[in-house]
Each structure stands twice: as structure tokens, then as C-alpha cells.
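Appendix B, example 12.
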Amino acid sequence: FNSKSNYATATLRKHLNCLNEIFENAKDNGYITLNPCDNFKISVGQNSQDKDVYTPEQAEKVLAFCKNHRFGLSIDLLLRYGVSRSELLGLKIEDVDFDKKIISIRRGVTMISGKIVLGETKNKYRSRDIAVNDDTLSMIDRKCEFLIHNQDGSMCRPDTWKRRHYNVFMKDMQEFYKGENIPALSPHELRHTRATIW
């Protein structure tokens, strides 16, 4: 924990809870006699930083730029509907009902031990149907299995998507709106923007 003192205290608490459960399980199964997490107090960590958000006017400009950018669908789904990155990368064409204008969130993409894993959503409340507009539907490539995909149509790794799609979009968007002071926010901050606007 001392070596991770640059992490947010809330993150360190989550790690401690996980570690505590592992040791409790080991204790219950007779592998150890004492849980080293008992009575351990976290004395390091950073305060969580406030998230940056777009104003409603800035958000509308970013969404307008999405319509004509090759990676605009990703940003549109994050910013307009508040989906998470994991949910975004797990979306398939079968999840889209073009007639009813609904996208169903049913799975997510995560990295486990360096491997990409397509699984269920983070929790049962994350599975949901989202009403979408025509602008969003018009950006979807109906020929690929995944809505957000690599050049060959395959599922994107989160780090690859961030580097090759997200960062490229943000750079192009800032260049387009040069002088208008629209910052490049993180994917989570786009989601946070939507929650704030709602």
C-alpha cells in the first residue's frame, strides 16, 4: 500500500477490501491461521480529484463534431447516453433495433491478465435498453459484428481503442474548434458530463 500511495484513497480501500476477502477465504479453508488485513488501516492515498465536465454548450459542439468523424460513434455513445467504455466496446450489431431506435446494453469488455474478455455487464443494473436518435443510428456500420471495432471488424482492446480512436478524435476535435477552449476530457468524464447535464 505504501508503494501505491499515488492512488486515490477510495481505490486503495477497494483493493484492501478485495485483499481482505482473499485472506478470509484462505483462513476459512485452512491455508492460513491469521488474516494480515485484520485491523489494517490505510494511511496513504490521494484525495479523489474532481472530474472535469463539458458545459451543455460544449457538449453540443462535441456531439456535432461526432457526426462527421470516423470515430464519432464512440464519443456520441459515451457523451450522449452515458455508456461506460466497457459497455461501449461490448456492443454488437445484434444489440441495435433500428426500427424501435433502441440499443441494448448486455455485455462489457475488460482486460484480465493482459487478455481481452467479453463478459456480462459490471452488475445487473447495468443491463438496460437505451433509446437512441437518428444521428446515432446513422453512424453505425451495419456490416460489422461490433459497433466499435478494429479495421478488420474485430473487437477492440480498451487500450487500443483509447490510443487509436479516442485520442485521435479528441485531437481532431480540438483542432477543429481551435480557440474555443473545448478541452479533451477522459472517457469517464464524458459519462460524468452526461450525468451532470441530466
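The beta strands are 96-97, 102-105, 107-112, 115-120, 128-131. The CA atoms of residues 3 and 44 lie 9 Å apart.
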